[in-house]
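Justification of resources, computational component.

The compute hours requested in this renewal are based largely on the per-chain cost of generating structure records like the one below. Each record pairs the submitted sequence with a full structure-token output. That output is archived, and it is also reused by downstream analysis tasks.
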Amino acid sequence: MSEPSPVRTEAPSSGAIDYVEHALLAARDLIESTVIRHRRELAQDSWAGTALGKVPLAEVVDTLVGCAERTVGVVLSGDEEQTRAVCAALARPVGRGRRAVVVRLLCEEPVLSSAAVRALARTDPRCEVRICDGGRPALPEALLIDGEVAYLRRGPSEPGRGPGQASLVEDPATVRALEMMFAGAWGNAVTLADHPRLGGRLCPESVRRILECLRTGHTDEVAARAMQVSLRTYRRYVAEIMREMGAHSRFQAGVRAVEMGLLPGRR
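The structure output for this chain reads:
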């Protein structure tokens, strides 16, 4: 009686393994997305019936940022409570499927003094920071999530004065309008790298550029456009430089700039 032939088992091809792995990863991402949406719905249910301004800001921001899957747009006005809450939420570790979330921080100039914001811009590749120039943005403090939800807040909570006004907007048309307003303000804002003020003072490169504009006789309008700041902001910077140098005229500021080695002397 002959021996039965051994059954041959072939190892799965690398293509089959890749397909299975891809399917499992896609399933995991779908589960994670479903869980995130469920958490947001539970949070919103728990907030229902309560004045949203009474819900701790950190709780609302953490929940909404943690549920973002595509985009996070933030308007930071300089309110310390809001800045701390946003930075803390964004600094938390994120899952694999959410590392591609695009984060845009639209800040007013006082926010530049926040080390947390600058640290996020420096260390988190998802984050881009821009500074509103020449006034306040059209939006109040705002958090825009995935083009689906907007959290708006007017005024911080203060002891003895009650909670700030806050609202959660989910109406598609309203959210879309808010997104368009944010996009317009974002397009007119200055990138953090190009903004003249660093750490509360004019950065050396901006000082040099302004002094060069003064020496070459550029009008304030032309110089402001070249530096991508408003005319009012540019003139404020000029006054700041003159004050720092103890100069009483723009010509005197130019002379002292050459003497101090900030500008090369003309040959």
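Strands lie at 71-76, 102-107, 127-131, 141-145, 149-154, 165-169, 190-191, 197-198, 201-202. The two ends are 108 Å apart (CA to CA).
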